[in-house]
């Protein structure tokens, strides 16, 4: 049985201000608070004594920084994987998070599924994440994948065979910065051990 850990990157200034980040945000760095979050997440994962931990990060700098802190705690390196990056929000970049507080049918991509005008749909994101996660799992060990908020929601819908609109309605897969999801399973399906666990941050999230 395989174990898979999914982690949202640590806080950035845009996250603190609750503003959607577009593709132009790829070079953005984590904040001082984000650095503390990443270290705490790394220590929490190191305490699990995972066999053969392998840390993966999206191509965005904030994910790489978070993955680096986790890898340091685990005594390993970081592999950057194409396909783990955040959903492209297109023309929604720069809008407040509150703009997302609507039903999924109000946010539609050209292909008819949840997604953003000028950006990606969740179908497209699920497709690229499927390839990236398969690549990480094929390398063996215990994958710890550092990605992004919307991308992680799409990934969990893909892995658990849940309609994205349903997950969006109750935000069951929403992750705070450095929140950890743990799954067990493999080709026959995945079982949730914990979802979006941010206990390592204590009350000072």
From TrEMBL:
Keywords: Hydrolase. CDD domains: HP_PGM_like (cd07067). Its EC number is 3.1.3.-. This is Histidine phosphatase family protein. SMART domains: PGAM. GO terms for molecular function: hydrolase activity. It comes from Deinococcus petrolearius. Coiled coil: none annotated. It is an enzyme of class 3 (hydrolase).
